[in-house]
Write a structure and sequence with these properties.
single chain, 308 residues, alpha+beta, Ribosomal Protein S5, domain 2, Alpha-Beta Plaits, 2 domains, seven-stranded mixed β-sheet, four-stranded antiparallel β-sheet, 11 strands, 32% helix
């Protein structure tokens, strides 16, 4: 067996994400300025080092994603993250994207180049296109919205295996209310009906159209009008009643509105930047004892390879 090559080394950074954004069930998502960082180095021995409560063997999601492209036998994985591991903030999507991107970089031997324009992918040796990595990430994650935001940054519209991206508008901020008690994703999925009323489907199409138009033009009043939902949040409200009540009350607190992040129970509170500090004080008061309040701006940068 050859000696370890310490020059085989890569660091990647991937943002967390919030999916659905109210009316855009399984279609809309946004990257958040909470990041996962993974450093992979050839040491001659497989090892996972982290303070996170995650597996330290090959069942680790970063490693599982990495092994879709390359073996991990002689590699050390150092993992650090500011993304809560539960609550619907894209921690699994970030882990998958980080593993794929790290493996892609270590496999690469070509000249320095970046990913597709606007993708957020950066750094030397990216052998696969953003579309290839996206398809692999969706295969492992099972749905496209969070991995689309993690890869590309900004706001994304995911239609099957295609992604359209929008930059976050100026002046738009985000506050997260993260409950201490989590809800299983399977339970949240099971709460959804097999069919919905036509009127509710039409309502969501209209709100999603307003939201995308508001995001693309920077019209925050239109963003506010586009945050309501009738397809998933009402059916899951009984799973996290405090979160659901906060979604209803958000505008009365001075926010643009609020949405359940992914399958929940985290609440994403949308705000004008100049109102964020006051809003956070009020949310801290309301969430005392049952949730943590975090400021997390929308992130324009997607997954990236960092300098060694």
């Amino acid at each position: 067996m050859s000696d370890p090559r310490p020059d085989r080394h890569v660091r990647v950074r991937v943002p967390g994400s919030t999916a659905n954004l109210g009316p855009g069930f399984d279609v809309l998502a946004a990257a958040l300025a909470l990041h996962l960082e993974v450093e992979v180095r050839e040491t001659g021995t497989f090892e996972v080092l982290t303070d996170l409560d995650v597996p330290l063997d090959r069942s680790n999601l970063v490693v599982r994603a990495f092994e879709l492209l390359a073996p991990s036998d002689r590699l050390q994985f150092r993992i650090a993250s500011a993304i809560p591991l539960s609550g619907g903030l894209g921690s699994s999507a970030a882990a998958i994207v980080a593993g794929l991107l790290a493996a892609d970089r270590l496999r690469g031997s070509g000249p320095e180049r970046s990913g597709p324009e606007g993708s957020g992918l950066r750094g030397p040796g990216l052998e696969r296109s953003g579309a290839d990595l996206f398809a692999l990430a969706v295969e492992l994650e099972g749905h496209p919205d969070n991995v689309g935001a993690a890869l590309h940054g900004g706001f994304v519209i995911c239609d099957g295996r295609r992604v359209a991206r929008l930059d976050p508008p100026d002046g738009l901020d985000a506050v997260l209310v993260v409950p201490h008690e989590s809800v299983r994703t399977q339970e949240a999925r099971a709460a959804l009906p097999d069919t919905v009323a036509l009127a509710d489907a039409v309502f969501n199409v209209g709100r999603a159209a307003r939201l995308v138009r508001g995001l693309s033009t920077g019209d925050l009043d239109l963003v506010s009008e586009g945050l309501d939902d009738r397809l998933h949040q009402p059916y899951r409200a009984h799973l996290y009643p405090r979160s659901s009540e906060l979604v209803v009350r958000a505008r009365s607190l001075g926010a643009l509105g609020a949405t359940i992040s992914g399958a929940g129970p985290t609440v994403l509170v949308w705000a004008r930047r100049e109102q964020t500090d006051g809003l956070m004080r009020e949310l801290d008061r309301l969430a005392g004892g049952w949730a943590a309040v975090m400021r997390a701006s929308f992130e324009s940068r997607g997954a990236e390879v960092l300098a060694p």
